[in-house]
UniProtKB/TrEMBL annotation, chain A:
The keyword Transmembrane is annotated on this UniProt entry: yes
Domain of life: Bacteria
Family under the similarity heading: Belongs to the binding-protein-dependent transport system permease family. CysTW subfamily.
Keyword terms of this UniProt record: Cell membrane, Membrane, Transmembrane, Transmembrane helix, Transport
Domain ABC transmembrane type-1: 69-256
Compartments, as annotated in UniProt: Cell membrane
Major localization listed first in the record, in broad terms: membrane
Membrane topology field: Multi-pass membrane protein
Protein name as annotated: ABC transporter permease
Coiled-coil residue windows: none
Length: 267, 383
């Protein structure tokens, strides 16, 4: 009997620990989602006071909130496009061609990821000030593209490294010109890596505070808005934005999973 | 072989990778419609040769011609040549239909569907059009790779170890299949392999390659019965090669002295009649009799002791140690006429001189009786 109980525990304790860790990861998100339906008793209070849909129906209520979100989406989108295109090209160059400076470039690519953001933010600021570039939307964008590129290069390069170079030879052997080979074989096979890199870029850019704070001038992004609002009490609508972002990300992940599963079944 | 308009000519082709010479001044003509096998061990230059015909490598020197047309510098997509790659290189993101249709679509050919259907019927894969390569067995993938290349009606089809990834039974089946398809479509097949049995089964002409050069070229039976070099003698099957000295012609025979014995081999089966030579006899051409028993008239013989015997069904394979220590391989057919020999038995190995052959030997080289074994290439290895 004791043996059985021991066995029952032995078989399940890992599962139990796993569930605890999952709960630990999910808890902050649940709190944010809960608070998005809360009507706080006063501005500085986080207590759960009363259920309401007001925050969701009146998202743009607090002054400047929606402007900041819109600006962050714009910057995130542009930074993603530039970083993904440039980073993908670099990944191809590094994965496919041997050139004189390749080892050096491989190291330089890692630098923005290894450098503390604080250091990068201040040094970028110094650079912009020295070059008398007006701080604002464009300096934020330049900074974001810079640190996103590294992540794109690393992600896409990993995908290309796992790709059989003979597939491209086979395409060429079957009358595909270099452009057609890229369009019909290389790109479709590299695409999952490129999409992952783009999603990563967007979330890195959308959420960046430290570097942005040094180089934004008077421009306010969403993370900076939240930071500023925190001094006077965070409006509950911020939780709505957070919950919505989370829901969109979750839907994207679910959609790709469903597509992949259906693709595997149909094919 | 009716016309010469589509013959594939490889003329004085050399390919170097840095200081390594993969293919060394190779000259070869492959007649239109032939089933041609390039046979050799890993790293002998056979795959490099194939890739130069496909356009995936550019020769360092020399010329590749199809009929009168120089294709040496043409890009792969400009050549009427298609390849069945080692481990197939099927496009994983496309289904069977689109894999097979790939070449037609790139050339903007019309009526793709009917051609693909016909080609899939030829390789017996009807009804598989919607499957992805990952959902096919090795043999099925192999057929898709073949259909994908053949549908373009190339002038030359290149096959790079196409059966290497299949298990033995499937390989035998596909050998027969490939031969059937080649006869049906009449396209020149150039087949690269390290498997001598595969080359002999399928090809009407075999070229044995070693260190970037062709050692011998001919019909499988010609090469097997009368190899040109010691390498060929032990790469294509197995041979007992005894080191000796040729002492010139006597009548129609070349005389050889080896280990204080004298042997004679018909001059038509001698690659040299002076200086250091190998006296060669295939193991199945040797017969064993008990020591002291009569040897058939006209046969030549060597005495020895049985040191090993393995029963392999159709034959029993013996090792016989001669007086000077070399172990000869002897394959005795299990036809039921002779009793098996015990280990340690004193025997005489004898052969008909018309089955022996003489090869040139480098001075100082000793007996060679073990086959040149070659492990299958690791996937992706350049060979």
């Amino acid at each position: 009997m004791n043996y059985r109980i021991g066995r029952w525990i032995a078989d399940r304790w890992v599962m139990g620990v796993g569930l605890l860790v999952l709960a630990y990861l999910a808890l902050p998100i649940i709190v944010v989602a809960g608070l998005s339906f809360n009507r706080p008793s006063n501005r500085l209070s986080y207590d759960f006071n009363e259920f309401t849909l007001d925050n969701w129906t009146n998202v743009c209520g607090p002054a400047g909130l929606c402007d900041a979100v819109l600006r962050s989406v714009q910057i995130g989108f542009l930074a993603t496009v530039f970083a993904t295109v440039l980073g993908t090209l670099m990944a191809f160059a590094l994965a496919r061609h041997k050139f004189f400076a390749r080892p050096a470039v491989n190291v330089i690519i890692f630098l923005p990821m290894a450098t503390p953001e604080l250091v990068m933010g201040t040094s970028l600021l110094a650079l912009f000030v020295t070059g008398s570039v007006a701080l604002g939307f464009w300096t934020i964008l330049i900074a974001h593209v810079m640190f996103c590129i590294s992540f794109v290069v690393v992600t896409v390069k990993a995908r290309l490294a796992g790709m059989d170079a003979r597939l491209e030879e086979a395409a060429m052997d079957l009358y595909a010109t270099p452009f057609q080979t890229f369009r019909r074989v290389t790109l479709p096979l590299a695409l999952p890596g490129i999409v992952a890199a783009a999603l990563l870029s967007f979330s890195l850019s959308f959420d960046d505070f430290i570097i942005t704070n040094f180089n934004s001038g008077t421009t306010v992004t969403f993370p900076m808005y939240v930071w500023g609002a925190n001094q006077r009490g965070v409006p509950p609508q911020v939780n709505v934005i957070g919950t919505a972002m989370f829901a969109i990300a979750l839907l994207l992940v679910l959609a790709t999973n469903v597509r992949r599963r259906r693709g595997a079944r149909v094919a | 072989m009716e016309s010469t308009a589509g013959d594939l000519h490889i003329a004085n082709v050399t390919k170097r990778f840095g200081i390594f010479t993969a293919v060394d001044d190779l000259t070869l003509t492959i007649p239109q419609g032939a089933f041609f096998a390039l046979l050799g061990a890993s790293g002998c230059g056979k795959t490099t040769t194939l890739r130069m015909v496909a356009g995936l490598e550019e020769p360092t020197a020399g010329q590749v011609r199809l009929g009168d047309r120089d294709i040496t510098r043409l890009r792969p997509y400009q050549r009427p040549v298609n390849t069945v790659f080692q481990s197939y290189a099927l496009f994983p993101h496309l289904d069977v239909f689109e894999n097979v249709a790939f070449g037609l679509r790139r050339r903007k050919v019309r009526q793709v569907a009917s051609q693909v259907e016909r080609m899939l019927a030829l390789v017996q894969l009807e009804g598989f059009t919607k499957r992805r390569p990952a959902e096919l067995s090795g043999g099925q993938q192999q057929r898709v790779a073949l259909a994908r290349a053949l549908i373009n009606h190339p002038q030359v089809l290149l096959l790079d170890e196409p059966l290497g990834a299949l298990d033995l039974k499937l390989r035998r089946q596909m050998q027969i299949e490939l031969k059937r398809i080649q006869t049906e479509v009449g396209i020149t097949f150039v087949h690269v392999t390290h498997d001598q049995e595969e080359a002999m089964t399928m090809a009407d002409t075999v070229a044995v390659m070693n260190a970037g050069r062709i050692e011998q070229l001919g019909r499988p039976a010609e090469i097997y019965e009368y190899p040109a070099t010691a390498f060929v003698a032990n790469f294509l099957g197995q041979s007992n090669l005894l080191a000796g000295e040729a002492a010139g012609l006597s009548g129609g025979d070349v005389l050889v002295s080896a280990y204080e014995q004298r042997f004679a081999v018909p001059a038509v089966r001698a690659r040299a009649d002076q200086g250091p030579v190998f006296l060669g006899v295939r193991p199945e051409k040797l017969a064993l009799v008990a020591d002291g028993a009569a040897v058939p008239a006209g046969h030549q013989s060597v005495a020895g002791v049985v040191t090993d015997s393995s029963y392999v069904g159709v034959s029993t394979q013996y090792l016989v140690r001669t007086g000077w220590g070399t172990e000869l391989a002897v394959f005795a057919p299990n036809s039921g006429t002779a009793a098996p020999l015990a280990l340690g038995a004193r025997v005489t190995a004898h052969w008909d001189p018309r089955h022996a052959f003489i090869l040139r030997r480098e001075p100082g080289e000793g007996d060679r009786t073990t086959p040149v074994l070659d492990e299958p290439d690791a996937v992706g290895a350049v060979s």
